[in-house]
Write a structure and sequence with these properties.
The protein has helices at residues 2-6, 21-28, 40-54, 66-80, 110-118, 130-142, 155-158, 179-191, 207-217, 246-254, 267-270, 288-291, 305-316, 323-343, 348-357, 370-379, 400-410, 422-425, 431-438, 453-461, 476-482, 493-504, and strands spanning 11-14, 33-35, 58-61, 85-91, 121-123, 149-154, 195-199, 221-223, 238-241, 257-261, 280-285, 299-302, 363-366, 388-389, 416-421, 443-447, 486-490, 510-514. It is of the alpha/beta class.
């Protein structure tokens, strides 16, 4: 606990169990806030939401065996979206038999399971090693590409005592790409006639620098799901969010230079196949391996996004976009908006009501639901980094509500809304009790289309029998009230707007169960 405090940790998400009680004893003696979700997967998702909005690693504390495995989905989701989470758990004793002996919560190889999905896991072998192991984990999470880390403490060390040496946090640098590659890229950008930017989740820390560079070059900007809001979507040069629309492929094909910042250019964002770059492609990425994955750039700028874009600004200077650049961006924005509105038509009344009701710094914590990826992603403009929390890489269900809890704790002065479908919410529905216990003014919007709507649609598209996807309607408003939340059912825009306004100022969470045509059903 002292080591965590030294690294700036102020909140821990976790559930106590038989094997981690010694850690909880120490937790009670330190000024760290503890939040008890109702499931370890919820703890992991909450740590994820906290990490995304604060920029600091989230901490998830579990007991052994099933608890670690419950959290595995959440940390794997964090791995796929480059989110730093420190998962701390006990492990089997130091002298545990290699083939096992039936100890409570025994897993054949707990660390190997985690190593298979997140890579970084460390099992300490003494109490004295713990401060070093914590410092090493934070150094790993804070350098290069953010990823989760796992720290395992053997059971027979949990209550052990020893003298330890305090380890100061390692100050990790975030260098720009090397000067020669920056100079070459700056020269190509300066000569561009039709530049364009693609902004991903790895660019969140470079919002101001990207805005300045886009203005200087007059470059229209489109963002990925996890990059949404990094470039303000109401800006004259913004095309919008969502790379899967045909307008984005056409825009990229028209550009003579594309600058892609902190994005994998992966199929989870593109949906319809890889983008083609007839002009030059410049990539900025902190991960050298990712630099050449999915698309081979003409200029490889391996470095921190903020530092590298700032270096480009220093070489290119500052300025304002020309009238012609603004007109060009407006043309592509209208095409992108046309495609987005056609795809998200069923959810537009709901999404537009949210847009008219929420403040400028609102955070949407979305699930892998049609109302999010067809509705909110490309049709709800957001203007601040870390405004759209979404499980893009792994595509898990149940993310929105617990991530919203973590986000609200990390950014208590910002409006936070959890946005779900009725199927996905059932994955982490018990976290309503967590939000109620914390008395968070958290609207939980449930667009009820009667089951797993996306899979239903795919069955229809494949001309196959539609089955196993329809779910009987749950009275989510009554469920909410049973969990000490507010609950209301709405079926039109006026009722929804009033419910959302009231929920944002409430004394506890409010489930807004959206039914009928407003839900996109």
């Amino acid at each position: 606990m002292r080591a965590l405090s030294a690294h700036g940790v102020d909140v821990v998400f976790g559930i106590p169990g038989t094997h981690n009680l010694g850690i909880y004893k120490a937790l009670a003696e330190h000024e760290l806030r503890h939040v008890t979700p109702r499931h370890e997967q919820g703890a992991g998702f909450a740590a994820d939401g906290y990490a995304r909005v604060t920029g600091k690693p989230g901490v998830c504390l579990t007991t052994t065996g099933p608890a670690v495995l419950n959290a595995m989905t959440a940390v794997t989701q964090a791995y796929s979206d480059s989110v730093p989470i420190l998962l701390i758990s006990p492990g089997m004793p130091l002298k545990h038999p290699g083939r096992g002996n039936g100890t409570l919560h025994e897993v054949r190889d707990q660390r190997a399971a985690l190593e298979a999905v997140i890579g970084y896991t460390n099992r300490v072998h003494s109490v004295a090693e713990i401060p070093l192991a914590v410092a090493q984990a934070f150094a790993a999470m804070n350098s290069g590409r953010p990823r989760p880390a796992h720290l395992e403490i053997p059971l027979d060390l949990i209550d052990a005592q020893d003298k330890v040496q305090h380890i100061e946090p390692l100050l990790v640098g975030h260098p720009a790409a090397d000067g020669a590659t920056i100079a070459a890229a700056a020269g190509r950008l300066n000569a561009a006639q039709r530049p364009g930017f693609i902004v991903g989740g790895g660019a969140r820390g470079a919002a101001e620098e990207i805005l300045a560079l886009a203005n200087r070059l007059g470059a229209p900007v489109v963002s990925t799901a996890n990059g949404k809001g990094t470039f303000p979507e109401r800006h004259d040069l913004s095309i919008g969010a969502g790379l899967h629309h045909r307008a984005v492929a056409d825009f990229v094909a028209e550009c003579d230079v594309v600058l892609a910042i902190g994005t994998e250019l992966a199929s989870t964002d593109l949906w319809n196949g890889p983008l083609r770059f007839p002009g030059d492609l410049i990539r900025i990425d902190v991960d050298p391996a990712q630099m050449i994955t999915n698309a081979a750039p003409d200029h490889r700028l391996v470095g921190d996004a903020q530092a590298t874009v700032e270096a480009l600004n220093q070489r290119l200077g500052f300025g304002k976009p020309s009238i012609e650049a603004v007109r060009r961006a407006d043309r592509w924005r209208k095409l992108h908006r046309k495609h987005a509105r056609a795809q998200g038509a069923a959810w537009l009344p709901l999404i537009e009501t949210m847009e008219n009701t929420l403040g400028p710094n609102a955070i949407i914590s979305g699930d892998s639901a049609m109302v999010c990826y067809y509705g909110a992603l490309s049709n709800l403009p957001l203007d601040a980094p870390a405004s759209f929390l979404y499980p893009a890489g792994l595509g898990t269900l149940g993310y929105g509500l617990p991530a919203a809890i973590g986000a609200k704790l990390g950014a208590p002065d910002r409006q936070v809304v959890a946005l779900h479908g009725d199927g996905g919410l059932m994955f982490t529905l018990p976290e309503l009790a967590t939000a109620a216990q914390l008395r968070l003014p958290l609207p939980v919007v449930v667009a009820d289309n009667g089951g797993y709507g996306e899979i239903r649609r795919e069955m229809v598209d494949r001309s196959e029998p539609v089955h196993a996807v329809d779910l009987p309607q749950v009275d989510f408003a009554r469920v909410a009230k049973a969990m000490d939340c507010h609950g209301v059912t709405v079926d039109d825009e006026t009722k929804f707007a009033l419910a959302l306004k009231k929920a944002l100022a409430a004394d506890r969470p409010t489930v807004i169960h959206v039914v009928g045509d407003l839900a996109g059903g």
